[in-house]
Amino acid sequence: MRVLPVGEHALLLEADTGEEAAAWHAELLRRREAGTLPPVREIVPAARTVLLDGLDGPDAVRRLAAGLAGLRPPAAPGPARAAVEIPMRYDGPDLAEVARMWGVAPGEVAAVHSAVEFRVAFCGFAPGFGYLAGLPERYGVPRRATPRTSVPAGAVALAGTWTGVYPRPSPGGWQLIGTTDTVLWDTARTPAALLSPGVRVRFVPVAPVVPEPAG
Fold it and tell me: Burial letters for 49-70: b for 16+ Cβ neighbours within 10 Å, e otherwise?
C-alpha cells in the first residue's frame, strides 16, 4: 500500500488490488466507528484507492500517513448483512454479442452472470450507480465502440469485469444484457441509494414480461 498526501486535508491510500482496497475501506470505517481514527469527513473507496478527506490540516495528514505507512493489509471484510437481491430479465440488446464474446449460447449468459455474488466496490457516475466487482476476468467485455445516446433506467450492463445498473436514463457505452424494475435511487428512501460500498449483490433471473394479445 502507498500512502500519499492530497493537498492539506486529505490522504490517498493506493492498494495493489481492488480486494485490498475494499479491505482497507472496511478497516478505516471500523477504526472511525471505534474512535481510533483521527477526525475525517469522508472515507471514499474507488477501484484500487481509498481517499480520506477532511483531515484537520497538514499536521494531521502527516501523522496519519506515518501511522498507516508500512501496515499490513487487513483481512478481507466478512459479510456485514445479507446480499441485496435484484430481480433481472436477461433481455438486453447486447446479450447475443456478450454471449459470443464469452463463447456461450445466449441462454447461458443468465446462468453465468446470476451465479456470481457481486460486491459494490465504489459508487459514482450517477446517484445510485454502483460499480459491482466479482465477474471473473475471463468474462470481461469491452465497452461499445459507439456509446448509446440514451440508456433506460434499470438497464443492467457490463464493461470490463464490472457490472452496473443504470439508475436513471443517461448516455452510456456499456454492454446491455438485461433490465430490472428495482429502484436504485429514491430520495424518499433512507438511505436514498440502494447500493453502497461493501454491499453484496446477487441478480435473480426472472422471465421477461410477455404482452397480452390485443382483443
Answer: bbbbeebeeeebbeebbeebee
**Mapping DSSP to helix (H, G, I), strand (E, B) and coil, where does residue 20 land?**
helix
What average pLDDT values come out for the chain (215 residues) when binned by 10 residues? 90 88 87 89 90 92 86 67 92 96 95 95 91 95 96 97 96 97 93 90 81 48
pLDDT of residue 77: 60
Which set of grid coordinates corresponds to residue 146?
459507439
86 burial via Cβ count (<10 Å: 0-12, 13-18, 19+): buried
CA gap 165, 180 in Å, rounded: 8
Residue with cell 436477461: 90
DSSP letter string, 25-42: HHHHHHHHHHT-S---SE
